[in-house]
Amino acid sequence: MPGPDTKQRILDAAQTLFAERGFPATSLREITKLADVNLAAVNYHFGSKDGLLKELVNECIEPINKERIRQLDAAEAEAGGQPLVLRDLVRIFIEPAVREMCEENGSMPCVLSRLHHEPHAGLEEMMADILGPTISRFIAATHRCLPHRTPEELMIRGHFMVGAMLHLLDFNCEELMPVPGVNKEVISDYDFRLEQLVSFCTAGFDG
Amino acid sequence: MPGPDTKQRILDAAQTLFAERGFPATSLREITKLADVNLAAVNYHFGSKDGLLKELVNECIEPINKERIRQLDAAEAEAGGQPLVLRDLVRIFIEPAVREMCEENGSMPCVLSRLHHEPHAGLEEMMADILGPTISRFIAATHRCLPHRTPEELMIRGHFMVGAMLHLLDFNCEELMPVPGVNKEVISDYDFRLEQLVSFCTAGFDG
DNA sequence: GTATGAATAAAACAATCGTTTGTTTTCGAA
DNA sequence: TTCGAAAACAAACGATTGTTTTATTCATAC
User: Fold this and answer.
1) Which residue is nearest to nucleotide C27 (CA to C1')?
2) Which of A110, A152, A163 shows the shortest C-beta gap to B182?
3) Who's near B35: CB < 8 A, 6+ residues apart?
4) Which residue range(s) make up the domain with A13?
5) Hey, which end of chain A has fewer CB within 10 Å, N or C?
6) Closest nt to A43 (CA→C1')?
7) Are A177 and A130 found together in one domain?
8) pLDDT tens readout for residues B18-38
């Protein structure tokens, strides 16, 4: 009865539910019910629940990462051996993730930020494989940008940047803390968030 | 056979396992086996698995929060109506958490940072009840410190700070990213981490 | 038309889950 | 010593988990 897009419908449903309740707390029966497909379809198409998760994550972070590398290549080619402007460097790392995840894939940020904090068998290695080279290049470029900082300082500040970014990505999942005088429209705007995050991290790297 | 400290042994074991595998992925049987107590002891002492989690979290974040309030009271009294130094303010928010969690409770950071990203029934409200007043006071003090920033800017940057802090707290759980030239001793030192985080967030708030 | 293979469907699999039961042990107060 | 509440225990509860099996549908190639 359901169309030929069973696989994609499973992925969509899984994304929604993983974002809502997390991976271990979501059952295949909930997923297949939301996707309106048969229970066995998950194991047929993905081999296992873990396989579903891996394909979902890979489908999301790989394009983000390629975009980062593309922008970094372009910026370094244009700079012609000169160090990049720090703010540009930070933006190259942050923007593709925020853009892709907040605009195209509304619920994926929650999934990803959760997975960063909830290790899963084989998933850390997958993340490291995909993200490792990018991070190495980014740190190296940052070092050329801020030669007075030690490798340890650069590394741990890169870590802080990732933390701030992941926390931003998870923002839509939480209740906003009631702060008097805050305009919710302003703070919900992705461009505002992106610029604030870039400013925060750029200053933080150099501070 | 086991001593009269059953409750504490359950809390300790739960903390360890929640940090390793996360709350939903940890079974009561694993906990009670590690704690060397009977399975039914959890429901006897805590009412339910959720009750165990709540007591564990509460036991951890409440002293941190009280210490933050205490330091904030002292600093504001000493300043006598004058705005605080931003760096001092940031430190008051960050230091009690890093100190308590990294030195006394080795595995609790993982649990907490995970819970921040994996909502659980009734736990968000508990966190908000405990942390809400502190955050309000902190934002207000920050506003006096940086009157040229809008409430939206202060709020979202406070959010970034929390993200960076949680990510730092989770640092010991992860593999360190291989960056050439990094001295692992330096980067493992809590004082170094604390100072770096304070510098990063202080600069980020004003940047 | 018939055969072939992928996709879907229904049903059952063994295992594990959190929880509850009824009983036994422990230990200080009466 | 006796009593009784608190604690610990073994055992089982019903429900749900991921997975597998078996059968059916359906389009395409012969």
Assistant:
1) B4
2) A152
3) B6, B9, B10, B12, B13, B14
4) 1-47
5) N
6) D19
7) yes
8) 988 889 999 999 999 999 999
